[in-house]
């Protein structure tokens, strides 16, 4: 029997700042999980209030978004920092700028609408998020242009078209599918909870009611300041004073030259088994140990954890030795050179990706087919009993055709990108994995379409999360649409400019030995992936007779596991099996024990605690970057900052077997 859920609310009246909240009896959630999710949202009771007269956007909003977003661009930092940086700038602007109104061609506007409202704050944060949250297409562009990688400059026009097309398609998909991902009350996007809580904490500094918070009276604003300050101070220890604390592999400090110990407990290129962790990655680590210490896949000749690819002399794989004219695969050169070898953990990532992909599809079919069909049918109309939808109905919705037109525009940019340049990508290739079969030996083409498949979907999820934040905070949909579109255009230009400046101004950028650690890890991952899927191709990597052919069994494993758990749930219908899912273990302390024992405290301070810890950490990271890393200030030179990084794990030399000069390992034919 499904439990009733009674914490639905309706607004019975509105004033400038508050709404009276009244319970609607008899409302039921569709499932226990949905009830739990709705409970999380409804714990943020202020998000069920709306004053449509509050300003949402003005010149102040646009100016702050551009300034803050550009300031954060090069650092790729979190939206919490953007939110915090926007607040003092917005308050300062509201205090000093003139409130005079201007009339331009019948359009009335002003530099200052008055006090900096929470809706202006939200709109500014959404716009700055677009600018500061970097376009993932720049990872592919780094792999193309960086000198240690492909060293191929395809021009600014190609770079801007690739970035704009992927971003615009992402916005369009988020908008087209918002009836599935944003409007339903059960789709809560928990990542927004800390953001909404922090927004209300900054704009409401009143004390908490001790009768509702287990005796605590401190305001959420003051609580945030205290916790964030503590987090800020704490990070200076692992960040500057004793950097060895950041990767606390103390056993490797005792045995710095023991390859086995450094592989098992090292935190850089090892498995980091000590200190102990209750994270769900333990299963993956155990499998990596099995691969490495049985000698399978020639793992004894490789580091246990790195994204670098290797040849049969234990050197980094030189992709240019197997490329012919036009960056295309040359089979004869490949036969003379070497097959590609992957570290056990990196190889396992591919296998688990195969399993996860098919498992997610089978799981949805087995467990959620009825709910998915129901959601699909209900998506044609908005939920009448959802308080957020009722409050948002005060505003005009962004028409569906706006997003459809945006999708067509993005596709036009995309076709111009792949057809107007030497992209190696025909218009009909649809994913990196499939493209590896359909356009074998074309690394640039496979890499570019990874942008148009995996990366575009990731961008769409990010934009959907922002749409949900605007939904929670009652920002008008049309303002959200134009905020995302305008800032995407601006951000694409800025990010391409920053990338080109970086590649042209910083010596050794994207190389593994770059002194300031500007090693372009994401770009290098794109580069390695392009070798695996594009140059050599999935047929030679995972086909019959290949080194990694056994990884195809992960497809079968991924398909069978959801069915096995479904059968177990039917045969042994115990609660523990119903929730046998790795993410259920995350947040056990706060989201179960504290919530159950001190629910009032949890409802008021849980999400602000998360926001404060993250904010203090990120602000400390920014300060350290500008004060120490960028000006190349020397950190304290003592054992905790020097000798702890002289281990085989840190140096990437934890390999159990080495080959002599002129010798090779691996198969004799490939």
Describe the fold and architecture.
The chain is mainly alpha-helical. The protein has a domain at 136-185 and 386-536. It is 56% helix and 3% strand. It has 25 helices and six strands. It has helices at 32-42, 59-73, 79-96, 118-132, 137-145, 156-176, 178-181, 191-203, 220-241, 250-254, 259-265, 282-293, 331-336, 344-378, 387-392, 400-419, 432-438, 443-473, 477-505, 521-542, 553-571, 575-578, 588-597, 599-629, 648-651; strands at 9-14, 19-23, 101-104, 107-110, 309-310, 341-342. It has a two-stranded antiparallel sheet. Strands 3-4 form a two-stranded antiparallel sheet. Helix 6 packs across helix 18 and helix 8 crosses helix 18 (443-473). The radius of gyration is 27 Å and the shape is globular. Residues 1-45, 58-77, 276-287 and 582-587 have low confidence and may be disordered. Keywords: Membrane, Peptide transport, Protein transport, Transmembrane, Transmembrane helix, Transport.
């Amino acid at each position: 029997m499904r439990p009733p859920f009674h914490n639905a609310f309706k607004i019975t009246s509105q004033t400038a700042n508050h709404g009276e909240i009244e319970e609607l009896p008899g409302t039921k959630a569709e499932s226990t999980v949905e009830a739990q999710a709705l409970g999380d949202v409804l714990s943020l009771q202020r998000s069920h209030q709306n004053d449509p007269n509050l300003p949402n956007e003005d010149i102040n909003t646009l100016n702050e978004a551009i300034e803050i977003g550009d300031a954060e661009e090069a650092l790729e930092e979190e939206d919490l920092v953007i939110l915090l940086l926007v607040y003092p700038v917005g308050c300062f602007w509201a205090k000093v700028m003139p409130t005079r109104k201007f009339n331009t061609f019948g359009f009335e506007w002003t530099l200052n609408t008055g006090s900096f409202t929470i809706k202006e704050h939200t709109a500014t944060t959404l716009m700055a998020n677009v600018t500061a949250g970097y376009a993932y297409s720049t990872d592919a562009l780094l792999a193309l242009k960086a000198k240690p990688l492909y060293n191929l400059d395809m021009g600014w026009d190609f770079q801007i078209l690739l970035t704009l097309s992927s971003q615009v398609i992402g916005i369009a998909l988020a908008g087209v599918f918002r009836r599935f991902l944003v409007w339903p009350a059960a789709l809560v996007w928990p990542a927004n909870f800390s953001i909404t809580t922090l927004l209300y904490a900054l704009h409401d500094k009143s004390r908490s009611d001790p009768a509702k918070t287990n005796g605590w009276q401190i305001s959420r604003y003051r609580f945030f300041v205290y916790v964030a300050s503590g987090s800020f101070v704490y990070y200076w220890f692992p960040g500057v004073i004793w950097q060895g604390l950041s990767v606390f592999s103390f056993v490797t400090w005792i045995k710095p030259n023991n390859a086995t110990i450094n592989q098992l407990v090292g935190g850089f290129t090892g498995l980091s088994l000590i200190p102990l962790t209750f994270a769900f990655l333990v299963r993956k680590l155990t499998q990596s140990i099995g691969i490495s210490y049985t000698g399978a896949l020639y793992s004894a000749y490789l580091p246990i954890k790195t994204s670098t690819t290797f040849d049969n002399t234990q050197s980094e794989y030189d992709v240019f030795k197997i490329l012919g004219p036009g960056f295309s695969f040359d089979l004869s050169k490949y036969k003379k050179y070497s097959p590609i070898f992957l570290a056990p953990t990196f190889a396992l990532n591919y296998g688990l990706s195969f399993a996860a992909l098919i498992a997610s599809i089978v799981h949805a079919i087995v467990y959620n087919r009825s709910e998915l069909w129901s959601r699909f049918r209900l998506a044609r109309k908005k939920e009448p009993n959802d308080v957020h939808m009722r409050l948002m109905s005060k505003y005009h919705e962004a028409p569906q055709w706006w997003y459809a037109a945006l999708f067509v525009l993005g596709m036009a940019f995309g076709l111009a990108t792949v057809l107007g340049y030497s992209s190696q990508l025909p218009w009909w290739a649809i994913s990196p994995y499939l493209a590896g079969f359909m356009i074998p030996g074309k690394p640039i083409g496979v890499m570019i379409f990874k942008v148009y498949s995996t990366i575009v979907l990731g961008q769409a999820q990010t934009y959907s999360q922002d749409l949900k934040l605007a939904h929670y905070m009652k920002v008008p949909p049309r303002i959200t649409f134009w905020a995302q579109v305008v800032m995407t255009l601006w951000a694409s230009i800025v990010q391409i400019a920053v990338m080109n400046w970086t590649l042209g101004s910083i010596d050794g950028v994207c190389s593994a030995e770059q002194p300031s650690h500007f090693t372009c890890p994401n770009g290098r991952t794109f580069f390695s992936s392009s070798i695996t899927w594009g140059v050599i191709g999935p047929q030679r990597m995972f086909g019959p007779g290949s080194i990694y052919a056994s990884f195809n069994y992960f497809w079968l494993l991924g398909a069978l596991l959801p069915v096995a758990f479904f059968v177990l749930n039917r045969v042994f219908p115990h609660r523990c099996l119903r929730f046998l899912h790795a993410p259920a273990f995350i947040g056990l302390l706060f989201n179960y024990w504290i919530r159950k024992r001190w629910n009032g405290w949890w409802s008021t301070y849980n999400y602000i605690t998360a926001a404060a810890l993250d904010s203090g950490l990120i602000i400390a990271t920014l300060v350290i970057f500008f004060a120490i890393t960028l000006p190349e200030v020397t950190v304290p030179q003592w054992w905790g900052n020097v000798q702890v990084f002289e281990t085989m794990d840190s140096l990437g030399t934890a390999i159990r077997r080495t080959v002599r000069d002129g010798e090779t390992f691996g198969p004799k034919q490939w």
